[in-house]
Amino acid sequence: MNEIRDAILSNSLDAIGGLAVPESYRAVLVRKDEQDMFQGLATKEKDPRKSLHVEEVPTPELGPGEAIVAVMASSVNYNTVWTSIFEPVSTFGFLERYGRVSELTRKHDLPYHVVGSDLAGVVLKVGPGVNRWKPGDQVVAHCLSVELEDPAGHDDTMMDPQQRIWGFETNFGGLAELALVKSNQLMPKPGHLSWEEAAAPGLVNSTAYRQLVSRNGANMKQGDTVLIWGASGGLGSYATQMALNGGAIPVCVVSSPEKAEIVRRMGAELVIDRSAEQYAFWKDEHTQDPREWQRLGKKIRELTGGEDVDIVFEHPGRETFGASVYVAKKGGTIVTCASTTGYMHSYDNRYLWMNLKRIVSSHFANYKEAWEANRLIEKGLIHPTLSKVYPMAEVGQAALDVHRNAHQGKVGVLTLAPEEGLGVRDPEKREQHLEAINRFRGA
Ligand code: NAP
Question: Ligand 1: distance of its center to the CA of 173 in Å?
Answer without folding.
Answer: 21
